[in-house]
Amino acid sequence: MKLIIFYLLLLTPSAFYAQDVQKIYIDPSKAYGGNVSDYFDSVEYIHLETTKESTVGDIYQMIVTDSSYVIADLDTKSIFFFSLDGKFIKRIPDQYSIFYDQSNNQIVTLKFSGDKTKLYLSYSYLSGKKKQHDAIVDIKNADLPMIRFFMTPLENDYFLSLNQHIFNDKKISPSDTCFYLSVYKNDSLYKQLVPVPKNILRATQKISGYVPLPRVVEKGTFYFSTPFDFNLYKLNKDTAVRLYQLVFPSNRSLPKNIIESVNDKLLDSVKNKIYTSRTMIMNIENIFFSGSKLFFKLRIPSSVLAYNTSVNEYQYNFAYDTISKKLVSVDRLTPDNISAFLPIMGETSKTRGMVPFKNHLYSYLSSLVLFTAKEATKSKNPQYPLVLQQYFKTQNRKSNPVIVKMKLK
């Protein structure tokens, strides 16, 4: 019995963290391209209806549901609801952000008060019709579990939260452990997941500020990567299984001694260098699997994304085949007959990431990009489906964006 207890004591979170895991070596500069038809069975273009009330500017977030597209627009600070064929349904003005509460089949929209001390939450059906209950949260006084904006809904009233720790003591032992994530049932802590040595979490928070919560949750299951050391986990509300560790070229990642450091001067210096870098990889996100293919998007400093206009030098969205070991840059796929030689992503959707939903990937393009591509590919004699023929006949370069729906092979 004593021997059993001894071994159980060894199985601490730190021990789990140290377990060997398969490494995947990723060099974005050596990723393959290919044709769109090599990776997708079909490509559809869905124009979002353009009216005075439905005019969309800069798409910040897009949610795909079984009955609608829900879009958060930075220009108008509004939330738009469109049907799956692009018909305008509703606009909710003066909102900031959205998330999809799948377990309750509702969209939650939010906005901050002018002084940023309160958070206003509104609940809508997938059609945009408002539900009866709203919520106002005093951010200064509220506990994190009470603020749904900072949590990702799983299912059956379980929510995922990213832990934020305040470290006042620099004398942290590597054997001290905390957790990246917490799961709440309603407003009570249910479980903590993904153990991490305190010195690494402290350095991570010092350098990058925060780790984005998973955007993709399917039937309560999601994927999560730790920042800078890129340990990839498959999780649900009860378990966290480490699948792989991604290893990037040394000139695009941080050495181990930095993410283990408690030297504030060093960490501040590294942070400043990161935020002026055009290539540093901070994390991977938008993670999901399709068969043997691992899809992910590189996370680099947002300050760089805002000024990055190079199509060829910077790639963000990748698919890695865990069987063939082949890495493909989705950004570099060449349009062919399956997409009528039109592009499948705009620069904004590349940097903000595609949306996976039920064996499809979704992106978006401006009408300016589509009309420009149409003129540039006339010599290829493209065969446009009726929907695109009608679009090019009735719309113009200033019309609303177009959703691109791609069925994965």
From TrEMBL:
Q: Which SUPFAM superfamilies match?
A: YWTD domain
Q: Per UniProt, which keywords does this protein have?
A: Signal
In its UniProt entry, what is this protein called?
A: 6-bladed beta-propeller
Q: Where is the signal peptide?
A: 1-18
Organism annotation? Haoranjiania flava
Does the keyword Signal feature in the UniProt annotation?
A: yes
